[in-house]
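Thread: "does anyone have the structure for this chain?"

Original post by V.I.:
We have the sequence but no experimental structure in hand. Need at least a predicted one for the grant figures.
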Amino acid sequence: MNIVLGISGGIAAYKTPDLVRRLRERGADVQIVLTRSAEEFVTETALQAVSGNPVRSNLWDKEAEASMSHIELARWADLVLIAPATAEILSRLAGGSAPDLLSTLCLATEAPIVIAPAMNHVMWSNPAVQANRETLEARGCRILGPGVGSQACGETGAGRMLEPHDIADAVIDVTASGSLSGKSVLITAGPTREAIDPVRYVTNRSSGKMGYALARAARLAGARVTLVSGPVHLPPPANVEFVSVTTAQEMHDACVQRAGDVDLFIAAAAVADYRPANVADEKIKKQGDTMTVEMVRTPDVLAAVAGLKDGPIAIGFAAETQNLKTNAMAKFDGKKLDMIIANRVGEGRGFDADSNSVEVYWKGGEQHFDDMPKQNLAKELVELIAREFADAS
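Reply from O.Q.:
Generated one for you, tokens below.
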């Protein structure tokens, strides 16, 4: 998702580095356009650092126009977000004037425009400002807020810019339409933990990054997403139903309970195959040089969902250290899956990495994806899944 963030000259501009960070966490690439007044409240250096992109501010910057003109920037955007939006920028947009780069870009883009106002509460209630708001909403602009609370001027009322996390979540909702619109998707992510005693457990190296990226990508593609996650150090994706579990049995129960109500099931979690047969009530003390823990099979989450009568399209992952295709296809056939996504793990690949490369196999086709960031790979996989199965689900 490509977002142009326009920042106008309100005190709330100091929150925009945090807003950029939160947009990027949700998978967005952010290009920033500053008005001249905004430069009084936030620096280009800070914004460039958090966005990873040069900051634009001058419509007549020959160097910037040579690398990416404002027209190209307007076409690049999937969405234009203005936060904070002052009374002045609302007036310019409503009147169709274009004295600066931000207002010119808004006239030139066909992307949705989302506006997060921020101003004194008396200014916000002024009939002229409200008339501009009504005009912009009638033209299809989405207005977020403003919130009610204390303001920098010391007064209290409606006029505060919404918090960055609320704006970022709302942007996801605006853009959540696409190849999986109207579909419901259940995704698993992360490892499970199988207790040995109150202190120790058996687990694996899964970070959950791939499953969380898939949940975000499916949501952006318009799906209603439920994410069932084992213990990870990641914030839950915005605008998905989030179910936290610990053990393989808990993940099995959570998925089987919900699988009958979804169209697609994507099992990205690395579920433990075995658990200790007996869990000690107290911490096991050292007794000799060896220790034996009897292990028993855990329930097979993917097989259970794939085996449901009239169940969802079932897509599994196969993490392998050798014989990638042979082992993946054995899992594909044995569990009667609709698709298998296979990747090599170990030596810094797959688990706990930010990028991945995979081989995808399904009835009637296969596709290779080169190593790329997991956020990007998730988008590619969601589009492939939608293309192959959206009509069948």
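V.I.: this helps a lot. The longest strand covers residues 365-373.
O.Q.: and The two ends are 25 Å apart (CA to CA).
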